Amino acid sequence: MVGRTLLPLLRERGHHVTALVRQTRHVDRLGGVDGVAVADVMDPHTVRQVLTRAAPDVVVHQVTGFRGVDCTAGMQHTAQLRATGTSNLVSAAASAGVRRVVAQSTASAYYPYGHEVLDEEAPLWTDAPGCWGEAVRAVEALEETLLTCPDIEGMALRYGSLYGPGTSFAPTGVMHRMVRGSAVPLIEDGAGLTSFTHVDDAAGAVLDVLEGGEPGAYNVVDNEPAEIGEWLPAYAHMIGGPAPVSLTLNQAREQLDWLTVHQLTEQRGATNFRLREAVGWRPAWPSWREGFADLLGLWPS
Fold first, then answer.
1. Domains of the chain with CATH codes
2. Are 53 and 70 within 8 A, CB to CB?
């Protein structure tokens, strides 16, 4: 999602762009790029070969594994890509003389303590249960690989819940269908916070850190973390769906999976202060309210 938005912006800024793809069948969807390299990031030998051949100054790592699979399978595949795939990519980048590696991370992995909006010093929830714990440990592995390699400048961009064209919140997207089908409830007294990131703002952050900012982890989120009880009814109204149903906590635990209950009741939001100070980044969509309205054709042109 972010990569497809980012590629034309890189060209507009005058960068020479080589797209790394696993298969060539979708190359025509990339738009104008200067070159295409074919490799699976899980294959260290081939990745090293293509990076050596391309000789980039900066590598941007935006690989995830959610395309065409359910949430659990997507998390498991993404965990592998973030742990092993990132290790392969960073090793190959260092060998090829790459100066900086910018990688996609997530702001939803923080340990959910208190009611505060969290910054980058907050701990990751590495001992979370089930597949979510696996996913968070993969985030930790990605960032450790990225930020401890002495031969590169590592930048981990912790995106919030991504929305925009081509995402689950867009018309025909998974979240859009679920909310219209009353499949996403409110939980009484649930205070889960969501930090949103428009795909345009995620791409803009990548552009800003290609040259600027000290190596490290940065939250890339909008200015308005929102409780589920605030953004979900607003989104449902915007898409013409029914008002969300309401469940007690016990009902939710009986009817929903553990991760969904966590997200609706205790997930914490994040602050973008560090990135704003480091490189002057500002979200084009400071609030999910205007961003959703634009996505759904409700914002004045």
1. 2-167+195-222+268-284 (3.40.50.720)
2. no
Residue type, 79: A
pLDDT in tens, 255-281: 999 999 999 999 999 999 999 999 999
Amino acid present at 281: W
Alpha-carbon distance 62 to 69, whole Å?
18
Nearest Cα to Cα of residue 134 among 265, 248, 259, 5: 259
Distance CA 132, CA 197 (A): 20
Cα–Cα dist 109/120, whole Å: 11
Per-residue b or e along 137-152, where b marks 16 or more CB atoms closer than 10 Å to that residue's CB = bbbbbbbebbbebeeb
Determine contact, residues 276/218, Cβ cutoff 8 Å: no
Model pTM score: 0.94
